[in-house]
Amino acid sequence: MSIVFPRHRVGVAVLSVLSCASPGAWAQAAPEAPAPSLGEITVTGNPLGATDLIAPTTSLSNEALLLRSQSTLGETLNGLPGVGSTYFGPNASRPTIRGQDGDRIRILQNGGSAPDASALSYDHAVPVDALVTERLEVLRGPAALQYGGSAVGGVVNVIDNRIPTEPIEGFGGRADLGYATGNREKSGGALLEGGTDRYALHVDAFRRDSSDVSVPIELPCANPKRPGFARKMCNSANEADGGAFGGTLFFDQGWIGASASTYRSNYGTVAEDDVTIGMRSDRYALEGEWRPGGFFSSVHAKLSRTEYRHTEYEGPAPGTTFTNDSNDLRIEARHRPIGGFEGLVGFTSESGRFSANGEEAFAPNSRTTSNALFLHEEFGTSWGRLSFGARTEEVKVRSLGDPSDPEITRFFVGKRDFSPSSAAFGGLVNLSPQWQLTSNLAYTERAPKDYELFANGPHVATAAWETGDPNLKVEKSTGLDLGAQWKSGANTARLNAYLTRFSNYIGLSATGNVRSADGELNPPPVETAEGLLFPEVFADYVYHGVRARFTGLEAGGNLQLIGADGFSRAEDGGTLDLEWRGDLVRATNTDTGEPLPRIAPWRVGSTLAYGRGPWTARLGFDYNAAQNRVPPMGDRPTEAYTLWNASLSYRQRVQSANLTWYARVDNIGNTLAYSATSILTTTVYPAAPLPGRSLKVGLRATF
């Protein structure tokens, strides 16, 4: 169940590329009225705060986020046009955008870096929870270059307002309570904010506790806590909790704020029946803005430190421990208009130290530093707007081997330096009050990551021996996006087509060989008194650069059937809308003509939404076509499936609180389905289907 607060205004830091909307005083909403619209400005990829966006961006907040939120970031966003998930079971799922995943998708927190280990391995969770998130924004395509080469596929920005960017007059908050039948999940969260025109304070906390997830088929389980067969996904239970405290001081020429947050999780890895991960992520952030006047109208700075650690347990015994400690600095200075041009210049500096210690340490300890300069300029015209951006970086990646065990000599020890540069152009044309055309063209370079360069060991989660290449060169791509958007009252439609070509796409490919646990290639069986003994082996995978091409379409919109902008009007004042969506992506290794792995099939979906007074009812489906276009080695084809879902919500006012009661049913038909973008569909089939039918009931209160 949950609680949201209405706001009288939205704060967007004038200069922050990704700053979050801030709350003000909470308005008094009538019981029968829908939750008030915040009128938020999308800030991801929109550093100058324009109301019309050149880049394709999607935002989720309020009831839209509440009714689709899941326990992982990937599953919460899955199904948006162009967005999928890596789905390593219900506890670890990272977003994919336009067929790309890992370090081509940048996950940010309030516009700043939020490092973890989720890009390194599919079983590593993203330390984010929707219970304490204000808004999620997804930026797709070439315009993401201002966030670096690791955003070539897109950006996901998690906005939580832990450092308020505008004064908060008075006091308010929200609370959430929920229960889901499919995994017996009990969840709750609370958020409080208050202040004056000189200071603002924020505090939040959440907790989730769930058991194994129900699925449509019986599956075996060797976990001592639940052995035998059951219609449950083995080892899929999860516990997570966390919270944050933050505050801001305001002065005549700006503001300065700080926050501290923590996230804890203990979850099963699904791929192995008796392996769990204990994860901890602590983040400290300092942010401020100064408006000095003169040539630079404002200077915005963000500084953060993240300390991430997780340990993989085999039963009760601790195994491999991964750590990733990092620092991030971002400074942006916005200049006053010059001859019709508005823009900003900026500097970012990131440093991180990664270590993996234990038997399953397939990548060495490493240190990475990156410094970058960037600029963004826009030119307004009578017919629309033009934009230009550029970025140049210096990246140093050093492998430290395995200092904890000098006998491990398989890792390369040394340093690589890279100097990637990127540039992008964009344009928006207003054809009429209802029609807009957009285009984005970008050239992007990405420095290889530490594991792409230096990995050399067994990765149990993917059942593969992964080998990096210290001689990899910068990954280079050119992307083009063309879009058309129409809006007339409540009716909207948007279509985007894109093409991205890589001259050096760094991928992980199967060689067709196998390796033993000690690295021997194609080990022979050992002859014993009891006969031939075949050693444990891992499929052999290597990182290398290939030419690749991604093409696709994304579409979505709303058609009001009954209402002020519909074909008719209901006598009772109700409205009926048809929301529709669809996408397709085709990804090819152009060196071989073979498809790239783990690409989603074409998808379509729609939802009927009926609203009358305080009631809202929704019924919809998402159809995923069969995916038979898979590489000859490495992927299992998947069958087509359709998932139906429904929800019902009721809003009421009780004294000073606005309540939203809701019920949601996922996978109404209890359909058996497997994700084409999940590596588990190949490595542990059939042990990791999508979750079965589940009813979630909840309450959100805003006061």
Automatic annotation (TrEMBL):
TonB-dependent receptor-like beta-barrel domain residues are: 246-668
Q: Would the keyword RNA-binding turn up in this protein's UniProt record?
A: no
Give a single Pfam family match.
Plug
Q: Which PROSITE patterns match?
A: PROKAR_LIPOPROTEIN, TONB_DEPENDENT_REC_3
The record ties this protein, via InterPro entries, to: Beta-barrel_TonB, Beta-barrel_TonB_sf, Plug_dom, Plug_dom_sf, TonB-dep_rcpt-like
Q: What is this protein called?
A: TonB-dependent receptor
Work out whether the entry's keyword set contains Transcription.
no
What is the protein's species of origin? Answer: Variovorax ginsengisoli
**Cellular compartments annotated:** Cell outer membrane
